[in-house]
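Quarterly update from the structural biology core.
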Amino acid sequence: MRLRKSGFTLLEILTVVAIITLLAALILPVLNSARAKARTSSCITNLRQVYVTWRNYVEDYSDYPPSLVSLISQANASIFHCPSDSWQGFNVWATRRSGHPVSYFYAHSLSDRNRRELIERADPHHGILFCVLHADYDRESVERTYRRFSADPNQAANSTFPYPPVFVGTLLRLRIDGSVQTARISPRCYQLPDGVILVDVNPWYYLTDAIPCLWCNSPYPEVPCRQ
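Predicted structure, tokenized:
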């Protein structure tokens, strides 16, 4: 009687490896998507908690906070950090000023009553704060934003609009009524006298989808952005 050899043949092993690889390729995107959705849900919860803090400030002082840093304390610092913030403080200026990781950007321009009246006229539910670290975004623009504020921490303090420069992609926008909105930001292009195309995004578009922008006063004509 002939005994059968135990073990697997090379073909059987390769078949099993191929099946495992295929299953991993199918499952990993699903797991990554689930993790991303969980981080987004946590960020939305944080933004709603930030809104409570912001609302309390407005009611106490009858005015908008001058900066995001004025809302941050040791007790509530964690709600200003987005779970998707692998930089551990994407808003470098606010992170350094507060001493805590801060991921979000605040609408400093709304401290100007004239600008506030303009945006309230166009959109009574305009944004007050936003996060650029979710869903589909231009990774290069996010990296450029981080490098810019890391290299020059005073830039935001010296600017009327301390926002990410030319960020394009999907952001989460905390609005003045406490709701959180998903918004898609696209670049705006302007033609300079020498023919050069300037790519820019006015802070207005980070705060509202309302068109036209009532505080945009570009001296250059807007043109279609080239792909």
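The chain has one domain: 13-223.
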